[in-house]
Specification:
Largest sheet: 8 strands, mixed
Distance between the termini: 45 Å
Helix content: 25-40%
CATH topology of the domain at 1-221 and 493-566: Rossmann fold
CATH superfamily of the domain at 1-221 and 493-566: Cobalamin-binding domain
Radius of gyration: 30 Å
Structural class: alpha/beta
Length: 874
């Protein structure tokens, strides 16, 4: 059982909270009762994967079905990979710690080509052959989906099947079909044939390949049976009960740690470089009533303090300003903030900024992409210099001191003038900020290299050489060197080159991937882990060159991804390429008549009446009657405060325990969990004032990662009167396993704050744990004291260690019946000796935090009736 070995695995890895599971809203089912077990695998670390909305949606959709069990698996960081290999243990799921190979189906999310090497790590740790052709009936089916699956060929040999399109639209259908076949005893081939017959599924083993003489690329030929070409599945409406509300709340900080509400999918703009525009086409929106109700219910079930409106082009959501205003009228009292994904300047208004700023100032991103209006016309970026400057002015006048700007270099037809335009535009924004806010604004500039991605009008163009791109990066950085408030972050050119190769590649790249993995390729999207030399060696070993995949292609040529249809006609993409070369703009989908365009074949049309400027769009729309009812329910959920309201703030002291797997959470992660539990429980905590209000909670000295605490303490302020027993029952319902509230006391006004009342701490070390017994035996042997009593030996060693450290204020004693060593330290400001240092010096334990327990605190004037934490023997 993995659970029996978990302790040994977690003691020596970075951020052990990645692997413990048990988070709030995690779904724990009985595996023995499941008719089909699905592992949702994400090929990056926990905190990246837990930010991905697609996995959250599938997790909810699958687990709602009573016969299905879906659990999460993330790529282990190299230290955990090594620990698993050293212990001979397989990779496992978070929920029930099931070895990956014991699932019936493994579904990988393919978001980014530079995660491909992590797929091999996961498969190898599971004991699953890399190549689909080598897997038998005793191995789970391995399926992939996500945006990178729109060119599946570089990894086609690794997967049994690919799902193309919106996962919630077709993945459940496929799983249920496979479940029925599995119950009849169907073999692997029969199940794959069933998948090939489903709309949106591509099964590579049934499609032969052909090498083109003119390009040298491998392309797929139609199979003998099954659907061809592969057309993506499309969810027609976002107003669906399938969108999750009870999302899993990560126990360690995720990259995007908030409720992410997808109020629109797809993008009506026609940016010619943007792959997402076409693969997520058509543009669909969530109704404002549904959006407000979903946001509020999700916030109530998670306890998050931030909600984000998510979309490729958030400014094209026709009801953005009234929806934000409506939502913030509900969220302002409980101090919940609203943030937006990158916003086109034309979508920024004074009303919208007012809504965003009602609670706290969240980030603001402007995406010019190019340095001149000419080049923005080439790439069809519907944005000009005047709009950019107006948006920056509005941001500065609204109180922002920091802006994020995104640009690309290496775009088609780019000249030196366009590069100078980036430098000049950033300088202008800095000067504008200096004028408006009377100081240089902070500008975080992100500079990436253009990659001609599949399914875009630019897919036939080549990518610039590595040396040319690096010279352009140097020019921009040099031009802004004197702008001290500007921070330039560049995507390393080798990373962009490799992304370009695998996004445009063919089937031959699968063997290159395996070769690179064998040479140590892991987490290639992480700058400090990326090794281009390993990849160059892998290409050389397979007799391939990167440049063969980055050159221009003829528009008449067959492409490796032609059998995957995004819904946009190829003829339209070619016409867009021609318009780009002429510098002509194309109207957005909402502005253009479908009869005039005829560029798509999806059967789902954007609602033209919602176009901005159209009277039918009703920009000032109020939420209707049914929406008002939903909103009223949402307000009730968020305002269900616990305790009796009083007219002034009072202080409370709360005592809690942190034990079991919860001890693998850092102090920062613990504080986030507790604050969100307060929100979930409806316990109102007072907030500080200012632009970034925070809960008025103060903590005792932080408990070290890995250490248990039996009587931890914190103080908070509230304008509510709480009954302690009811408070404990209420809050404990909203905490993860291992964290329990054991006491609550209202503090008198005259009582000093917690940090002034703590004068000492009591710690203990179990003498019968395996690690301590081994360390104690080794220490006694090294001292020639094998026959000496453990207690006597420890007393002697402790006295020597304290004398050497010059510590006279530390007490210690051994309780033989409890088989524990106790020691009492002064509060931190009076002693620099940490418990772990003391134990390490006495026993030589490498990671003593995982064996230590903080029993409690010594207080000045402790409240009557409260027992001292393990008093020393008289």
């Amino acid at each position: 059982m993995i659970k029996d070995h978990l302790e040994g695995l977690l003691r020596k890895v970075e951020r052990p909270g990645r692997y413990i599971g048990g988070e709030w809203n995690a779904v724990i089912k009985n595996p023995a009762r499941a008719k089909m077990k699905i592992a949702l695998a994400f090929p990056d670390v926990y905190e990246i994967g837990m930010s991905y909305l697609g996995q959250k949606i599938l997790y909810a959709v699958l687990n709602r079905h009573p016969d299905l069990l879906a659990e999460r698996v993330f790529a282990p960081w190299p230290d955990m990979e090594q620990r698993l290999r050293s212990a001979g243990l397989p990779i496992f799921s978070l929920e029930n710690k099931i070895p990956l190979r014991e699932f019936d189906l493994i579904g990988f999310s393919l978001l980014y080509e530079l995660n491909y090497s992590n797929i091999l790590t996961i498969l190898d740790l599971a004991g699953i052959p890399f190549f689909a052709r080598e897997r038998g009936n005793d191995v789970p089916l391995v399926i992939a989906g996500g945006p990178a699956a729109f060119n599946p060929e570089p990894v086609a040999d690794l997967f049994d099947a690919f799902f193309i399109g919106d996962g919630e639209e077709g993945f459940l259908e496929a799983v249920l079909k496979l479940q029925k076949l599995r119950q009849t005893g169907a073999g692997r081939e029969e199940m794959l044939r069933a998948l090939a017959a489903l709309h949106g599924f591509y099964v590579p083993c049934f499609s032969p390949t052909h090498r083109l003489q003119e390009t040298g690329l491998e392309v797929r030929l139609p199979p003998e049976q099954g659907l061809w070409p592969i057309r993506k599945r499309i969810l027609s409406s976002l107003d669906s009960g399938r969108f999750p509300e009870k999302i899993v709340v990560p126990d360690i900080e995720a990259v995007f740690d908030r409720v992410a509400l997808e109020i629109a999918r797809g993008c009506p703009q026609r940016c010619r470089f943007c792959q997402a525009t076409n693969i997520y086409f058509p543009f669909r929106i969530m109704s404002p009533e549904f959006a407000v109700a979903k946001a509020c219910r999700s916030l109530a079930s998670t306890g998050y303090e931030d909600v984000s409106f998510s979309a490729l082009s958030i400014g094209d959501y026709p009801f953005l300003e009234p929806t934000a205003a409506e939502l913030m009228s509900i969220l302002s009292p409980p101090k919940i903030s609203l943030s937006l994904s990158s916003l086109r300047p034309s979508g920024l208004s004074s009303g919208l900024t007012e809504s965003i700023l009602r609670v706290r100032k969240t980030g603001l991103t402007i995406v010019p992409e190019a340095g001149t209006d000419r080049l923005r016309a080439v790439i069809n970026k519907n944005l000009n210099h005047r709009e950019i400057m107006e948006a920056a002015r509005l941001a500065f006048e609204s109180g922002w001191r920091l802006l994020k700007l995104y640009f690309m270099i290496g775009l088609p037809t780019e000249t030196q003038v366009d590069l100078e335009g980036i430098v000049d535009l950033v300088r202008e924004i800095v000067e504008l900020g200096r004028t408006v806010i009377k100081m240089p604004p902070q500008i975080n500039l992100s500079l990436s290299s253009f990659i001609p991605k599949p399914h875009t009008p630019f897919q036939w163009l080549g990518m610039e050489r590595e040396d040319v791109l690096e010279e352009k990066q140097r020019f921009v950085r040099s031009g802004l060197r004197r702008q001290r408030s500007v921070r330039v972050k560049v995507q390393p050119t080798p990373v962009s080159i490799l992304e370009g190769v695998f996004s445009r590649g063919d089937r031959k790249l699968g063997s290159v991937l395996v070769q690179a993995w064998k040479r140590g390729a892991r987490f290639d999207s992480w700058r400090d882990r990326f090794s281009f030399s390993a990849w160059r060696e892998a290409f050389a070993a397979e007799g391939l060159e990167e440049k063969n995949y980055l050159g221009p292609l003829d528009t008449e040529a067959r492409l490796p991804w032609d059998h995957i249809e995004s819904g946009i006609h190829k003829e339209f993409l070619i016409a867009e390429l021609e318009r780009a070369m002429r510098g002509e703009r194309t109207p957005s989908c909402l502005e253009m008549s479908c009869l005039d365009c005829q560029g798509c074949a999806t059967g789902v049309r954007p609602k033209k009446r919602l176009a901005r400027g159209n009277e039918a769009a009703v920009p000032g729309r109020k939420i209707g009657r049914s929406g008002a009812a939903r909103t009223e329910r949402a307000e009730t959920i968020l305002s269900s405060a616990f305790g009796e309201k009083i007219d002034h703030l009072v202080r409370y002291e709360m005592i809690y325990a942190k034990t079991g797997t919860a001890r693998y959470l850092s102090h920062r992660d613990l504080t986030s969990h507790l604050k969100r539990a307060f929100r979930r429980a409806g316990i109102e905590i007072a907030f500080s004032t200012g632009f970034h209000p925070t809960m008025l909670v103060s903590y005792a000295p932080a408990l070290a990662l890995g250490m248990e605490g039996k009587a931890e303490r914190l103080e908070f302020k509230s304008a509510r009167e709480f009954d302690p027993p009811r408070f404990l029952r209420r809050l404990n319902r909203f905490l993860r396993q291992g964290i329990r509230i054991t006491g609550l006391r209202r503090l008198a006004d005259a009582e000093p704050p917690l940090n002034k009342r703590i004068v000492g701490m009591v710690f203990s070390l179990p003498l019968d744990s395996e690690e301590v017994k081994q360390a104690l035996a080794a220490r006694k042997k090294s001292q020639g004291a094998v026959s000496q009593d453990d207690g006597d030996f420890l007393r002697r060693e402790m006295e020597a260690a304290l004398e050497k450290a010059g510590e006279s204020g530390i007490q210690f004693w051994v309780e033989k019946k409890k088989r524990r060593l106790f020691f009492r330290l002064p509060e931190p400001s009076r002693s620099g000796l940490r418990p772990r240092d003391l134990v390490s010096s006495v026993l030589g334990l490498e990671e003593p935090n995982f064996d230590l327990t903080r029993e409690g605190f010594i207080l000045t004037n402790p409240p009557s009736g409260e027992k001292e934490a393990v008093p020393p023997p008289s």
